[in-house]
Specification:
The complex is a heterodimer of chains A (353) and B (501).
Chain A lengths: L17 H7 L6 H6 L44 H24 L2 H4 L3 H8 L1 H21 L3 H26 L4 H14 L4 H10 L5 H30 L3 H29 L5 H23 L3 H5 L7 H18 L16 H4 L1
Chain B lengths: L6 H9 L11 H4 L24 H24 L12 H10 L1 H17 L3 H29 L8 H7 L4 H12 L2 H15 L1 H14 L3 H31 L3 H30 L7 H21 L10 H7 L3 H11 L13 H10 L4 H19 L21 E2 L2 E5 L2 E5 L2 E5 L2 H9 L1 H4 L5 H6 L8 H8 L13 H12 L4
Antiparallel strand pairs in B: 1-2, 3-4
Helix pairs in contact in B: 3-6, 3-11, 5-6, 5-8, 6-11, 8-9, 9-11, 9-12, 10-11, 10-12, 12-15
The chains are: A mainly alpha (353), B mainly alpha (501).
The complex binds fe (ii) ion (2 copies).
């Protein structure tokens, strides 16, 4: 049955759900707003968790930071489940067609023999690094306060597993993939240049303040590591003719850019809070000051990777670039950058660009 | 050239072995929660992943499904599709769904992240991660599907706030709060197995086929779209149980206790679904009794439990009582909703004569004897004095939080009361099942946020009915009688103005 609606218009009784009209006044809401704002339960929880009776099911005290309004943070990408999946599917289709092209042009066969060993020294062990990142972000997704924040962390957690699988996917295109995966794991567990990093990752699993966990992973660790390996070392790979892997590097780089958008917005929300902004600034600064030296120490040993290809890379210049990028990002956010850089050999400014 | 791997091998390569046992921090510190319940796992690799979905495949399938779903929702909104449902009364079933079930989808989303974080096995963690974001999907597609209804009808406007506050919604809320505050294996038994496997057909099929029968395109569409997610979740539920039972014999009695508890918790929750099925659908799908016989007695009792018997698992506590109650609970529950309907965020009404006849046919043993006379009397009161409501506050069961409305299993004329004393305090229950659940974990259930107690304690906006309703977020038209309600008047006038073409 259908109705002839042409002559009259039925008047809407409401423009949007109350949660949204209370906040934005009488206007239609976007699907992102409907799917996000005020969705998490807030009160009258029935029981305390057996596994941690000190907290409520959702508990704002799970971070030192505070927001007068937890929904003052919104994802600048406006990702709810639907658009998130569409966006990721699109990048994946892109990567798949690039890998298919690489396969077609036999690019993988053309990678010189020593690259197998190089992949084993960074890319394959990083499957596990990414998986370790999922561990951190699932924690955040469970314990962060408010749907807008935890939703970003949920996608971030799933992305990290995706990144791990993308590396696996690449490995599966190479000869003797089983061995590669096994040996890659052995190096993650044992190779000296990776142990400080693995140790750091394991320690991030114990961070109980979820905001701190986000900042360590998304403001410090990922940006430094991705810049070093997927941006800086990418140039080395190109110079050495390892073309196929640069598609993976590019995917990772693009992902980092996308993922850092929500973290940046989250820091801004904390810093701009009328009531708690200043206290948040001090706490965030403390978190970053405490973690940055440890993060840097854990990444410095990756320098050996730059020595491995025939045409060697310049790790110190790359390091300079990575830390400078990080400094600029933090400065743009209005945060202080530590004046002393432990374990860093400062390069002359002219070499850094 | 690399060897081409099959789906299964690819999946195994992608997921297995990515985890590792930490050595720079203590393992118990990184994974502190999987042992305190007493469950013993010897080999996590014995976990058979029930669905082998890699992340890239997931993005691909799910984005395709979403594209189709949102296309339907968009055209529904543009074309005033809400006018095509069977009758305005129908939407009350969907209000109940949005207020009662959608927030549970969200709870599931959050807590499967807990499982994904804290289980040491990579297969379990991956399955939980996928389910977590599936459940976020369900939350959001339900909110989006019902958004067009909110624009024209009462009762849809404040889903989450109502779920946190309104009395009858503390039934689903306490159920899920109970599950997420339990240990991880109990959570999996409660939600993945008991909720998603044992009772899922009773919970979701009535809503989804009800939607299809009553012309509700958005609900039908998201129901179908969620079905393939649900079938993954069901498989996970069965896998969880078999894994626990196969890993160690000592797990069997623990799992049995959880099945006993969570069957009864879920079954009591389902009494709201029973009332919805028999009373709120203008076009009936099947009766609660028929659904119970098909989806529980045939599929679970005759199908699943003989299979679990080889592990030493028995059908759960309370099954015999549930079978006896299939003649009663929809009627007892709806009658309570009808009586206390001034405080509910949906409308209630007296069934039409043909609906009463349908119930006589479906419930020959009880309906004419116990329930039809109630509605005939109610109709007489309406005709003579107008609609009545019970304005007092009912006593609630300490465990399931349903008012004391259920009768003795063998006597539909006598209300069932049970009680226990704990630390010199007396607690009340609707049934042997709820009493047993309390007696197993009194320290948990003394914490219950009981809506009626909270009103008495002054925590719900004030002592008077209007103050409490205001605190609930109930607006005029949301509650009370359907006949003469805003929704009914609008429905009538829209259908007068817009003649079918
Ligand atoms: Fe669901
Ligand atoms: Fe009960």
């Amino acid at each position: 049955m259908s109705y002839d609606l042409s002559p009259q218009v039925i008047e809407q009784r409401r423009l949007a759900y109350d949660e949204l009209t209370r906040r934005y006044g009488q206007r239609e809401a976007t699907r992102y707003e409907e799917a996000t704002i005020g969705v998490q339960h807030e009160e009258n929880f029935h029981y305390r968790p057996l596994w941690n009776p000190a907290i409520e099911i959702y508990d704002p005290s799970m971070t030192r930071l505070k927001l007068a309004d937890w929904y003052s943070f919104l994802d600048p990408r406006q990702f709810y489940y639907g658009p998130y999946n569409q966006a990721r599917n699109k990048s994946m289709e892109n990567l798949d067609s690039q890998l298919a092209y690489a396969n077609e042009r036999a690019m993988l066969d053309k990678i010189a023999g020593d690259w197998r060993n190089i992949f084993l020294s960074y890319l394959l062990p990083l499957r596990h690094y990414e998986y370790g990142g999922t561990t951190v972000m699932t924690y955040v997704a469970r314990f962060a306060y408010g749907t807008s924040i935890e939703q970003c962390a949920s996608f971030n957690a799933f992305d990290k597993t995706g990144n791990s699988q993308i590396i696996t996917k690449f490995a599966l295109m190479l000869p003797n993939a089983d061995q590669l995966l096994e040996e890659g794991k052995r190096r993650w567990m044992e190779a000296p240049h990776l142990q400080p990093l693995r140790s750091l990752v394991e320690h991030t699993w114990l961070i109980t303040d979820w905001a701190e966990a986000i900042f360590v992973q998304n403001l410090l660790l990922d940006p430094l590591l991705y810049t070093l390996l997927y941006q800086e070392f990418d140039r080395v790979a190109l110079e050495n003719g390892a073309l196929a892997v640069t598609f993976i590097h590019k995917y990772m780089n693009d992902w980092l850019k996308d993922n850092s958008r929500w973290t940046t917005a989250l820091v801004e929300a904390f810093l701009n809070d009328d009531q708690h902004g200043e206290a948040n600034r001090q706490a965030i600064q403390q978190m970053l000051d405490g973690w940055r030296p440890k993060v840097e120490e854990s990444l410095r040993p990756l320098g050996v990777i730059f020595e491995m290809p025939q045409v060697k890379g310049n790790f110190e210049a790359s390091w300079q670039q990575a830390t400078q990028n990080l400094d600029h990002h933090l400065e743009r956010l209005g945060l202080n950058v530590a004046t002393e850089m432990p374990a860093t050999n400062k390069m002359p400014a002219t070499l850094a660009g | 050239m690399a060897r081409k791997l099959g789906l299964r091998e690819t999946y195994a390569a992608m997921t297995r072995g990515v985890n590792w046992t930490p050595s720079y921090v203590k393992e118990e510190e990184a994974f502190p929660y999987h042992q305190f319940e007493g469950i013993k796992i010897h080999d996590w690799d014995k976990w058979e992943d029930p669905f082998r979905m890699t992340v890239d495949n997931y993005w691909k399938y799910q984005s395709e499904k979403d594209r189709r779903l949102y296309a339907v929702l968009d055209s529904f909104s543009q074309n005033q599709g809400h006018l095509n449902i069977s009758d305005g009364r129908y939407l009350n079933a969907i209000k109940l769904f949005l207020q009662g079930v959608t927030p549970l989808e969200y709870m599931a989303h959050r807590h499967f992240m807990f499982i994904a974080r804290y289980m040491p096995g990579p297969g379990t963690r991956m399955a939980a991660l996928c389910q977590s974001i599936d459940e976020l999907r369900h939350t959001q597609i339900e909110i989006h599907s019902m958004s067009p209804y909110n624009k024209y009808y009462s009762g849809f406007h404040s889903m989450r706030k109502m779920h946190d506050r309104v009395w009858y919604l503390s039934v689903p809320k306490s159920y899920f709060d109970d599950a997420v505050t339990a240990g991880p294996f109990e959570f999996l038994t409660a939600i993945s197995f008991s909720f998603e496997y044992l009772l899922t057909n009773l919970l979701f099929v009535p809503f989804m086929s009800g939607a299809a029968y009553n012309g509700d395109l958005p609900t039908t569409t998201f129901g179908f779209s969620a079905q393939s997610d649900e079938s993954r979740h069901m498989t996970l539920g069965l896998q969880v149980i078999k894994f626990l039972l196969e890993q160690d014999e000592a797990n069997v009695p623990i799992v049995q206790r959880w099945l006993d508890k969570w069957f009864w918790r879920g079954y009591r929750l389902n009494s709201l679904v029973a009332a919805m099925m028999d009373y709120m659908l203008p076009k009936k799908v099947m009766s609660w009794k028929e659904a119970f016989e098909l989806y529980f007695e045939q599929q679970m009792l005759d199908g699943l439990f003989p299979d679990l018997a080889r592990y030493g698992i028995k059908p759960p506590m309370g099954v015999e009582q549930a079978i006896k109650e299939k003649e009663k609970i929809s009627h007892e529950t709806y009658w309570a909703l009808y009586n206390f309907g001034f405080a509910a965020a949906f409308n209630t009404w007296i069934p039409t004569n043909s609906e009463l006849d349908w119930m006589t046919e479906k419930y020959p043993a009880t309906f004419d004897r116990y329930y039809r006379p109630r509605y005939e009397k109610a109709q007489k009161i309406v005709d003579e004095n107008g609609r009545f409501f019970m304005l007092g506050l009912p006593q609630l069961c300490q465990v399931c939080q349903i008012p004391m409305i259920f009768t003795e299993p063998d006597d539909p004329g006598k209300i069932c009361f049970r009680s226990s004393t704990y630390k010199a305090e007396k607690y009340h229950f609707c049934s042997d099942g709820c009493k047993q659940i309390f007696d197993w974990e009194p320290e948990k259930y003394v914490q219950s946020w009981l809506p009626v107690h909270e009103i008495y304690k002054g925590n719900c906006g004030g002592p008077s009915v209007p103050e409490v309703l205001d605190w609930y977020g109930i607006q005029p038209g949301d509650n009370g009688e359907y006949q003469g309600s805003v929704d009914q008047l609008n429905w009538a006038s829209w259908h007068k103005d817009f003649a079918p073409v």
